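dumping this here before i forget
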Amino acid sequence: MKAETWKEIKHCQNINRWVSLLFGAALLGTLLYAAALHAAFDAAEYYEKKCSSCHTVGGGDDVGPDLKGVGERRSEDWLIKMIQSSQSMISAGDPVATQLFEKFKRKKMPDHDLSPDEVKQLLAFIQQGGPVEKPIDDKPATAATPQDIQLGQELFLGSRPLANGGPACISCHSVGSLGPLGGGSLALDLTQVYSRYEDAGLSKALRKTGFNIMREIYVPRPLTGEEAFALKAFLFQADRQGQESTGFQKKFVFLGVGGCVLFLGLMDLSWRKRRKKTAKPSHGGLS
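structure:
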């Protein structure tokens, strides 16, 4: 065998060896990453962060249904699909999902970006009894005084800052006709949130929200018990007093139209003045 041919064979063997090593390293890295993701999922922590603000396990229906015994009532496949995307189930016409949606006043459960295996871990945690429920010690909104309602309004509008530094509710929400522009439009109008959540559910939502953006903002800056009750009292009154405002967007439409009319009026006035100047006869002529 010629020396040159032997060198080519050795070169090819070296390349194959390196390709095999790289492929093996990539495969090992993928397996380790998948194992890390699997190990990182904590069903108890996930339930506390994402589920506990709307559900109980054995404490009765809340904002959403009581999850005790849900594994016996529904199939595992149905539960996986429902937890991953309840609205997809409703849009597809699933009768049970639609019935639950109507029963709980059409409140939308957020989608959960979980793998089937992670949902199974979450269901196993619920099946084992779930978390130890800590009852929220709060008075009903009907017991609120005018001072409580006034405090809640000030906290909502931001004229009185929250004790732990959280932003005022009006930054993202509107309620009734409060505020010169009706409040924020990043989140839902809260005029009738009391009717949607009822007293206990609203207390829970204010103390322990499950919505991602609110968790990021308020977990480090939680409401005090007094603030949560005052806000609930104010929202209870708003619910009883009126309909949801047509809102921030509609007011901005009127402002936009008004501003456009004003701008066109000024442009027309300016143009008329210019035309008068150019229409004046010039002095002098042919000599």
